[in-house]
Predict the structure.
Amino acid sequence: MGIMGWGPRIEQAFEETALAMFGLIIDGVGLQPNREIHFEVKGRELPELLIEFLNKLLLDADIIESSFLSISVNSIEERDGVFRLKGGAKGISRESARDRLLAEVKAATYCGAAVEKDENGRWKARCVVDL
């Protein structure tokens, strides 16, 4: 399944892409998060950073048996040829939301992965996830 996010800032495009991925996993409308994580990921190129970011979220969600309802990307910086993303996510335990679970996303893939600005200066981030 292809997912995409966009926004005036690259951070917002990454957040929207992650929310699209978790929108496949859970119907989070009206749910209140009760768990929070913080993370940092790295990538040599922006598409690699996107895939690392999405897969880190999936891994952390599995570890704490949660689904994320809100995701924030605090910064994306490039230094010495490496992009670094710092952010956080808030979610709910899968047990307490089991009747709202929709599908399992196994991984974000490099298939169709791209991070770019469009002709209007808006950032777009996209990839295909394996269901």
In short: DSSP finds two helices and six strands in the chain.
